[in-house]
From TrEMBL:
It is found in: Endoplasmic reticulum. GO terms for cellular component: endoplasmic reticulum membrane. It comes from Manacus vitellinus (golden-collared manakin). The keyword Endoplasmic reticulum applies. Keywords: Endoplasmic reticulum, Glycosyltransferase, Magnesium, Manganese, Metal-binding, Transferase. It comes from the Eukaryota. Transfers mannose from GDP-mannose to dolichol monophosphate to form dolichol phosphate mannose (Dol-P-Man) which is the mannosyl donor in pathways leading to N-glycosylation, glycosyl phosphatidylinositol membrane anchoring, and O-mannosylation of proteins; catalytic subunit of the dolichol-phosphate mannose (DPM) synthase complex. This is Dolichol-phosphate mannosyltransferase subunit 1. It catalyses: a di-trans,poly-cis-dolichyl phosphate + GDP-alpha-D-mannose = a di-trans,poly-cis-dolichyl beta-D-mannosyl phosphate + GDP. It holds the Pfam family Glycos_transf_2. SUPFAM superfamilies: Nucleotide-diphospho-sugar transferases (SSF53448).
C-alpha cells in the first residue's frame, strides 16, 4: 500500500486463541509491524483504546474488531476519505450507501436499527451509524475524546461521536459491510439493552 503502518493487538485474556495466533503473525511479519499488547483479564473497551494508544506511533489510529467482522479492505477507503475532506474522524457506516449487515437475525437487526433511530431523534449527532466501532481517528482527537467519555459498553461508541460533534471535530463516513463473526458469540441481552437506554438518556440530558 505504500503506507507506513503497525498493527496493535489488544487481547484481554480471551479463551479463543487470539494471543497464540497474534504471536504467530508477529513471527511472520516482525515485531515492528505486529505489536502484541495483551492484558491479563477483560478490562473494558475504553481502557483497551487507552492501552493501544500508548503504543501507537502514527498520526492516525484505525480501530476495528479483530474477528474480521470489520474487513481490512475498507481501510484504504477510510484513508482516502480522510484526505479528501481532512476529517478528524472517519466512521464506518452500515446504514448509508451500499453499507449493510450480514449474519444477524431479525431481532438483532431490529435492536440495532431501533437503537440508531432513537439516538438520531434524541441526539441529532450528524452521523448515520452511532454504535459501530470501525473508525479512523486523528491520534490527538482520540486522546481528547477518551478524556471526555465516561460511558461503558454499547453507549461508549455513541458517546465518542456525540462528544466529537460537541467539540467541533469533523466526521466523514464510509459505507461498510459488517459480517457477524463465524466463531464465538456476540452477547446482547436484556442488561445490555437497559444500560444502553440509560446511557442514551444520560447523554440526552448532558449534551
Amino acid at each position: 500500500s505504500g503506507i507506513d503502518f503497525e498493527i496493535i493487538i489488544i487481547d484481554d485474556g480471551s479463551p479463543d486463541g487470539t494471543q497464540e495466533i497474534a504471536e504467530q503473525l508477529e513471527k511472520i511479519y516482525g515485531s515492528d509491524k505486529i505489536l502484541l499488547r495483551p492484558r491479563p483479564r477483560k478490562l473494558g473497551l475504553g481502557t483497551a483504546y487507552i492501552h493501544g494508544m500508548k503504543h501507537a506511533t502514527g498520526n492516525f489510529i484505525v480501530i476495528m474488531d479483530a474477528d474480521l467482522s470489520h474487513h481490512p479492505k475498507f481501510i484504504p477507503e477510510f484513508l482516502r476519505k480522510q484526505k479528501e475532506g481532512n476529517f478528524d474522524i472517519v466512521s464506518g457506516t452500515r446504514y448509508k450507501g451500499n453499507g449493510g449487515v450480514y449474519g444477524w437475525d431479525l431481532r438483532r437487526k431490529l435492536i440495532s436499527r431501533g437503537a440508531n433511530f432513537l439516538t438520531q431523534v434524541l441526539l441529532r449527532p450528524g452521523a448515520s451509524d452511532l454504535t459501530g466501532s470501525f473508525r479512523l481517528y486523528r491520534k490527538e482527537v482520540l486522546q481528547k475524546l477518551m478524556e471526555k467519555c465516561v460511558s461503558k459498553g454499547y453507549v461508549f461508541q455513541m458517546e465518542m461521536i456525540v462528544r466529537a460533534r460537541q467539540l467541533g471535530y469533523t466526521i466523514g463516513e464510509v459505507p461498510i459491510s459488517f459480517v457477524d463473526r463465524v466463531y464465538g458469540e456476540s452477547k446482547l441481552g436484556g442488561n445490555e439493552i437497559v444500560s444502553f437506554l440509560k446511557g442514551l438518556l444520560t447523554l440526552f440530558a448532558t449534551t
